[in-house]
Design a protein that fits this description.
elongated, 2 domains, SH3 type barrels, single chain, binds zinc ion
């Protein structure tokens, strides 16, 4: 999976199209990511021995990684991610159109 925790992404399709946020959790096994503020739902909770207060909590549910993309900082469009090997031998993510680092 090319998108990681901490990336700023934009949603490309579906109900949350156009929303932006930071990836707070990557779930490579499910090919999903949790993006802050995207796919937010309200959950009703009852009291338990641990949690004395009942109420509504808000939670961000995972979305398929296939519908989000990192925006190219240079072109300000969703980037297709490519890789380039830096001088020190490490792999760097880049925009596959213009080569800008992501
Ligand atoms: Zn670019």
């Amino acid at each position: 999976m090319k998108i990681r925790k901490g990336d700023h992404v934009v949603v490309l399709s579906g109900k949350h199209k156009g929303q932006r946020g930071q990836v707070v959790r990557a779930l490579p096994g499910q090919e999903q990511v949790v993006v802050e503020g995207v796919n937010r739902v309200k959950r009703h909770q009852r009291t338990t021995q641990l949690r004395k207060r009942a109420g509504i909590i808000e939670k961000d549910l995972p979305v398929p990684v296939s519908i989000v993309a990192i925006e190219c900082p240079k072109e300000h469009i969703p980037a297709r991610i490519g890789y380039r090997v830096a001088e020190d031998g490490s792999k760097k993510r880049v925009c596959s159109r213009c080569g800008e680092g992501l």
